[in-house]
């Protein structure tokens, strides 16, 4: 996204970016095995193909 913005508009898309390692579910809870709210990768690959998990 950043490189595309620079290429096509010659401007950076964000001044600041906040990154973290937490992934949250639709209810805002942390996704984890212990909460049993994870995503089954096999189901994702069958439904959307393996590229959905690569990117």
TrEMBL record:
Keywords: Aminoacyl-tRNA synthetase, ATP-binding, Ligase, Nucleotide-binding, Protein biosynthesis. InterPro entries: aa-tRNA-synth_Ia, Rossmann-like_a/b/a_fold, Valyl-tRNA_ligase. Its EC number is 6.1.1.9. Residues 1-55 form the Aminoacyl-tRNA synthetase class Ia domain. Pfam families: tRNA-synt_1. GO terms for biological process: valyl-tRNA aminoacylation. GO terms for molecular function: ATP binding; valine-tRNA ligase activity. It comes from the Bacteria. GO terms for cellular component: cytosol. PANTHER family: VALINE--TRNA LIGASE, CHLOROPLASTIC_MITOCHONDRIAL 2, VALYL-TRNA SYNTHETASES. This is valine--tRNA ligase. It comes from Mycoplasmopsis synoviae (Mycoplasma synoviae).
């Amino acid at each position: 996204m950043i490189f595309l913005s620079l290429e096509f508009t010659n401007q950076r898309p964000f001044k600041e970016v906040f990154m973290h390692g937490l992934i949250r579910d639709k209810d805002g809870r942390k996704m984890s095995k212990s909460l049993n709210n994870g995503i089954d990768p096999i189901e994702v690959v069958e439904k959307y193909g393996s590229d959905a998990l690569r990117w």
